[in-house]
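FW: tagging you since you asked about this chain on Friday. Here's the raw sequence from the shared folder, copied in full. Didn't touch anything.
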Amino acid sequence: MINEEKVTLMTKAAIAEQHGVTDFRTGKYYKRDYVNYHVLLVGICVTIAMVLILGLVAVIFIENYPEKAQHFDWISAGFAALLGYLIVLVFYVIITMIVYTVRYNRASSKIKEYSQTLKRLDNLYNVLEEQKASATLKEAQEWADYDREKKQGRRKIARRRDKE
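HL: got it, structure written out here
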């Protein structure tokens, strides 16, 4: 006989396993490590992007205005670029922290839900096993009673023969 609750729980668990692959990867990390890892990656990407953009702007400026490039105040431009870089970096770091904290929390709640489903399924299996064991125990007791009655019946027949 098919137990509908068991089938429902197994289906929920299978769906969670198929759709929650990234959630399980996320669950391998502590929250702080997960967020810091992604902040580090974004910091590296922002740094590379800013270096490429500033390099491109400098090359274009030198190519188009060679006479102005000699008298240009590169130090103040460098400080302005550094300030712009820090502002962009802080902006992206804050956005990254918010996004990956939310992602981690969602993945964590999905993993907890999956774990609870597995616990309920395990409890259901235990209950079914206990019911099955008690049913087999009752059957065994019934068979033992039947055998006893059968033996007693044979003894009565043997006693009658002995009396005759």
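FW: The chain has a mean pLDDT of 82.
HL: agreed, and DSSP finds five helices and no strands in the chain.
FW: great, closing this out.
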